[in-house]
């Protein structure tokens, strides 16, 4: 099945963005607005014994200082997102004296100016009763929970099992058995977490960048004893989400209460260091991966056992084996996931949360297996391609991984690769390595309500539940609605990220496009039908606006509701109450994933042993590409992040005192422009019509999956070193002989 490619239109909001006309949450400064700052706990765990705010209150311009002593009866917990609630942390700070992690807020100061608020916050003095902490996976005092035996909902968090993996592995002629570790990492979107809270006639209005306006609305209502109708969230743009902004933040109710107390709008922008300690992060993890093959190279068994960091108060459930269990035609698979309670804020979803990490383990083992078998790593993957889901035996809705691999190999020039490690060198002694890895990410779908309005001035307004975090969803919506209605994309306006009309469900898990775009497309179909019913002939090729005018209608609105195949009707109740409602990868008739293949060249310089990545080729199967420009940009962004995850990023913890040490973007090292070479992107662009009528799967997360193992495999090819701990740094490829 094929369809005409969508045009390579520019971002519909590009002009607004480059002029600064796109307003982000904390860009707002309503009249009379005051500024807030936070004081945070300086211990890793314990209890506030006393808190002295007198010096803070004495700072000129300070209007209000609130601590747990003020707020115990004013804010209720919103509940943890993964436990039926709305917040990124189930533990709401500042309603009790207990401190669960270093950096937890203990006071909020409101002042006329930001400098006064910051100065005063620094003068809040607390004395604490200190308790011992465990902040590392292997530390004494952690508590390990077997996920499948926990209270987390089943079957979602049952272990993924097929066949008899232990027996098949024991009998396998060729075995790979390896342990991997990955560090805690933090999302560092350009936009800090920040909120402007304002009360108008008993209604709370929150301007804040979020991926989940509906959860914020319902969560704040629950916390502050309001009805959801009394809360409005305004988030037309979010300056990067990546999972950090996928639920209600613990600061937002503090700003809301402060604004109510001072009866003025209050702006709270959380500094980067505090974001590291109070929003989510990618948990540290440890994996043992076993892979068995017969002599011919058929993979017959895989066992994936994981330990993943959680907080003491919330269990952050993991789905590492959802990636590795469904990836290849391996009949015998066993996943076992364990959660390790540590003294931190709750970890959460960070781009390709489990998939990036899981792919690092499995795709490294596949490469190792290829060398053990003496087979080309692309050929080994192709030989073990799956034609049905090996766990459920259901078909895939679509799967073009093989084409990703073969097209990527051709674009990269893989046929010129010599297999032996250390066989490719530049004249100056630079070691060259070529590596490959594949990735997958579930193709999920959330329910959506879409309302489309046409005006006789020719504009179309699509209101649907989805958030613009920079990924380009506005452009995708415009392209699809415009194509259906036969109008220019710039005439389509997307009303998204603002509560009050269609429910603004969580935009995450790469389901944004597969959720909002088919809904918008169906709304456009409904509009065409409604236009036809106006009784005007469009024989002369009249545009919709002309039909409206001829019928004497200033505007026309239609509304549709759409759910995933297999979703019960009650899902719209969940949707309306701001609870996560997405489905996938398992649907009643099939299983759906997006796929990618990455080909990477690394160069390891002699002397410095600096690892460079001059060249990446990535080919994606994300179903149909509805916005080629922003899709390409997403792939490049995901590859850049993959390079960061492989070679740079780690949140360092201090086992003595807790917290994260490198809590700024000077010391939390991300790739910069000079670290990035060529990133060539290919799309299979084959629609998946079983999943939805537009044929889109999902793109935003799969793009990062497999980059890290492709780099690790390339480093092996360059050096002969098999490195299984991320990030891989100079010291890991440095030999005594280099000094
Ligand atoms: Mo994404 S990490 O599911 O916001």
Approximate helicity band: 25-40%
**Rg over CA atoms:** 26 Å
Shape designation: globular
Which fold name is given in CATH as the topology of the largest domain? Aldehyde Oxidoreductase, domain 4
**How many angstroms separate the termini?**
58 Å
Q: What does the main sheet amount to?
A: 7 strands, mixed
**Structural class label:** alpha+beta
Contiguous low-pLDDT stretches (5 residues minimum) are: none
Small molecules bound in the structure, each named once: dioxothiomolybdenum(VI) ion
The CATH C-level name of the largest domain is: Alpha Beta
Q: Count of helices?
A: 19
The total beta strand count reads 24
Residue-averaged pLDDT, rounded?
96
* Reported CATH architecture of the largest domain: 2-Layer Sandwich
- According to CATH, the homologous superfamily of the largest domain is Aldehyde oxidase/xanthine dehydrogenase, molybdopterin binding domain
How are strands sequenced across the largest beta sheet? 3-5-1-13-10-11-12
| Estimated share of beta-strand residues | 15-25%
Please tell me the total number of domains: 3
Explain how this protein is built:
This protein is an alpha+beta fold and 739 residues long. It has three domains: 25-131 and 190-240 and 245-278, Aldehyde oxidase/xanthine dehydrogenase, a/b hammerhead (Aldehyde Oxidoreductase, domain 3); 146-184 and 282-417 and 432-443 and 589-729, 2-Layer Sandwich (Aldehyde Oxidoreductase, domain 4); 445-576, 2-Layer Sandwich (Aldehyde Oxidoreductase, domain 4), CATH 3.30.365. 25% of the residues lie in helices and 23% in strands. A seven-stranded mixed β-sheet has the order 3-5-1-13-10-11-12. Helix 6 (213-224) links the parallel strand 11 (203-207) and strand 12 (231-234). Helix 10 (355-373) runs parallel beside helix 18, helix 13 (473-485) runs parallel beside helix 14 and helix 17 packs across helix 18 (707-719). It is globular, with a radius of gyration of 26 Å. The model has no long low-confidence stretch (mean pLDDT 96). The structure holds dioxothiomolybdenum(VI) ion (MOS). Dioxothiomolybdenum(VI) ion (MOS) is lined by residues 211, 241-243, 246, 349-351, 353, 508-509.
């Amino acid at each position: 099945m094929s369809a005409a490619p969508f045009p390579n239109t520019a971002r519909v909001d590009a002009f607004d963005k480059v002029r600064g006309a796109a307003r982000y949450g904390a860009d707002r400064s309503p009249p009379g607005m005051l500024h807030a700052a936070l004081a945070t706990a300086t211990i890793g765990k314990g209890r506030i014994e006393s808190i002295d705010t007198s010096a803070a209150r004495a700072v000129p311009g300070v209007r209000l200082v609130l601590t747990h002593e003020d707020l115990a009866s004013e804010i209720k917990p919103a509940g943890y997102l993964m436990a039926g609630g709305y917040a990124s942390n189930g533990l709401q700070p500042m309603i009790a004296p207990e401190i669960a992690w270093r950096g937890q807020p203990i006071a909020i100061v409101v002042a006329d100016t930001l400098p006064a608020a910051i100065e005063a916050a620094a003068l809040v003095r607390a004395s604490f009763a200190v308790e011992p902490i465990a902040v590392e996976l292997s530390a004494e005092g952690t508590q390990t929970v077997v996920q499948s035996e926990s209270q987390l909902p089943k079957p979602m968090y049952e272990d993924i099992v097929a066949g008899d993996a232990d027996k098949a592995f024991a009998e396998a002629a060729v075995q790979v058995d390896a342990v991997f570790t990955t560090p805690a990492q933090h999302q560092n979107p350009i936009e800090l977490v920040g909120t402007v809270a304002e009360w108008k006639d008993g209604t709370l209005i929150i301007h804040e960048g979020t991926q989940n306006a509906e959860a914020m609305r319902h969560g704040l209502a629950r916390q502050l004893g309001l009805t959801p109708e009394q809360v409005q969230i305004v988030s037309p743009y979010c300056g990067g989400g990546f999972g950090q902004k996928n639920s209600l933040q613990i600061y937002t109710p503090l700003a809301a209460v402060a604004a109510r107390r001072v009866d003025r709008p209050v702006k709270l922008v959380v500094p980067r260091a505090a974001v590291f300690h109070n929003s989510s992060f990618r948990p540290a993890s440890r994996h043992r991966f076993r892979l068995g093959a017969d002599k011919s190279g058929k993979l017959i068994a895989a066992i994936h056992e994981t330990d993943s960091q959680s907080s003491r108060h919330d269990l952050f459930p993991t789905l590492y084996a959802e990636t590795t269990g469904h990836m290849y035609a391996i009949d015998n698979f066993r996943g076992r996931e364990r959660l390790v309670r540590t003294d931190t804020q709750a970890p959460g979803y960070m781009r390709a949360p489990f998939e990036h990490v899981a792919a690092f383990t499995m795709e490294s083992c596949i490469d190792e297996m290829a060398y053990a078998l003496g087979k080309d790593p692309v050929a080994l993957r192709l030989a073990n391609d799956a034609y049905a889901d090996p766990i459920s035996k259901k078909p895939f809705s679509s799967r073009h991984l093989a084409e990703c691999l073969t097209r990527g190999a051709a674009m990269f020039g893989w046929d010129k690769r010599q297999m032996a490690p250390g066989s490719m060198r530049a004249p100056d002694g630079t070691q060259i390595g070529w590596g490959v890895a594949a990735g997958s990410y579930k193709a999920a779908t959330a329910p959506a309500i879409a309302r489309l309005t046409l005006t006789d001035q020719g504009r179309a307004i699509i209101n649907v539940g989805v958030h613009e975090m920079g990924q380009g969803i506005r452009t995708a919506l415009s392209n699809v609605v415009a194509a259906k209605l036969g109008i220019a994309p710039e005439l389509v306006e997307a009303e998204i990220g603002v509560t009050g009309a269609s429910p603004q469900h969580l935009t995450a898990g790469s389901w944004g496009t597969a959720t909002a775009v088919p809904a918008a497309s169906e709304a456009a179909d409904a509009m065409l039908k409604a236009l036809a019913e106006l009784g005007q002939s469009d024989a002369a090729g009249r545009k919709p606006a002309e039909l409206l005018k001829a019928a004497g209608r200033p505007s026309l609105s239609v509304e549709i509701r759409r759910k995933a195949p297999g979703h019960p009707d009650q899902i719209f109740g969940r949707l309306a109450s701001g609870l996560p409602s997405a489905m996938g990868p398992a649907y009643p008739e099939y299983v759906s994933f997006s796929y990618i293949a990455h080909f990477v060249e690394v160069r390891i310089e002699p002397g410095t042993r600096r690892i460079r990545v001059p060249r990446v080729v990535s080919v994606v199967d994300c179903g149909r590409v509805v916005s080629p420009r922003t899709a390409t940009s997403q792939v490049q962004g995901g590859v850049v992040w993959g390079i960061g995850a492989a070679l740079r990023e780690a949140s360092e913890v201090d086992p003595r005192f807790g917290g994260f040490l490198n809590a700024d973007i000077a010391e939390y090292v991300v790739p910069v422009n000079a670290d990035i070479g060529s990133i060539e992107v290919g799309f299979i662009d084959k629609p998946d019509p079983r999943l939805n009528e537009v044929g889109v799967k999902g793109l935003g997360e799969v793009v990062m999956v497999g980059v890290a193992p492709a780099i690790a495999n390339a480093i092996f090819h360059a050096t002969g070193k098999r490195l299984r701990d991320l990030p891989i740094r100079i010291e890991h490829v440095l030999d005594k002989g280099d000094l």
